[in-house]
Amino acid sequence: MSVYNAVVLRSIKRNMSRVKNKKLPTIAGHKLLYECNLRCKMCPFWRRPDSKLLSMEQEIAMMEKLKEGGVSYLGFEGGEPLLRNDTPEILKESHKRFHTSMVTNGWRLEKKINEIHTSLDFLFVSIDGSKEVHDTMRGMQGSFEHAVRGINASKHMVPVAMSSTITRENIDSIGDILDLGDKLEVPINFQIEYDYSTAEKISPEKEKLLGALNMLIDRKKADGPIMNTVQYFEAIRDSWFYGYKWECRPWLTINIDPEGRVVTPCYIINEYSGSDYVWNIDIKKMWNTFDWEPYRTCNKCALSCYLEPSLFKWTRPAMVKSRIIDATIDYIKFSASKRNF
Ligand code: SF4
Ligand code: SF4
Q1: 128 CB within 6 A, ligand 1
Q2: pTM over 0.85
Q3: Pocket test for ligand 2, best of 232, 292, 298 (most atoms within 8 A of CB)
Q4: Are 307 and 246 in contact (CB under 8 A)?
Q5: Sign (positive or negative) of CA dihedral 190, 192, 197, 200
Q6: Residue 260 needs a FRET pair 20 to 30 A away by CA distance; which of 93, 159, 223, 224 works?
Q7: What residue stretch is flagged as signal peptide (predicted)?
Q8: Has residue 30 been placed in a domain?
Q9: Residue with the nearest Cα to atom 3 of ligand 1?
Q10: What percent of the chain has pLDDT over 70?
């Protein structure tokens, strides 16, 4: 419990500075690189050349800035983070300061998990369907098998979830994804595909998406292996199909690109293009002078790293139960099972 207490106390302390500074990021995402060994149809990032990546000193300088800016949760992604040899060291530094997570395609996970598991609080492994569906969407034969082997090697060391992107190519296979979650005994975090201008446009057809959202709401209510809240799926359905918008609060999440630049106002607007170097700015000042107003009603994407925090309010008991109480219970259960394994 000591690690969990440290995370909770750190979050409370950093949240207290929110009283004085009206807008601060809670969650940070950082792409360690754009390079990837897979070729996912819907992904713009493997198509971008990497220029110079951050040194260890720059990664630490970035983390110190994020900490000062109020961030409690830092998630690493790419590209494929496990292609960098210094990723274990970067995760270790992050874990001293933040609740630390990583999303990986799983290809190198089985080999690497022993080096990284003590630095991770949560791990996401991308799986989009059955072997055939997944390998086709991800553009690489063998990617499903590696991801499953990676999950099996990791799930007793660190809490793991599958990360699944719903596209027109797998929308009919959501049942298979849920069955796989049950079989592997890990929950699934779903995203709805966003059509980037520089990737293949395979976002789901609207008619099918409505049925899929309703099915996911029912399965979540019936205790299916789903990490997203019911409110996440309901917000997308109510906005995109019935015109009731959610309030997007993109300032709760800050993203840093592989060169150390801050991506504003969010991941999707400007298609993840960074501007100021994070070590040159005062996050508190920037966040409270930036004009966030136009984005409150945006509702253009359903990225869970923006939508879930946007929906969370202490006055919404269902969200508090799902995000705080259930997550704490899951953490306690995982710690107990780890001791017994
Ligand atoms: S695994 Fe991730 S980073 Fe790599 S190509 Fe696929 S979506 Fe992009
Ligand atoms: S809904 Fe709009 S403002 Fe909010 S994260 Fe998505 S693109 Fe950005």
Answers
A1: no
A2: yes
A3: 298
A4: yes
A5: positive
A6: 159
A7: none
A8: yes
A9: 79
A10: 93
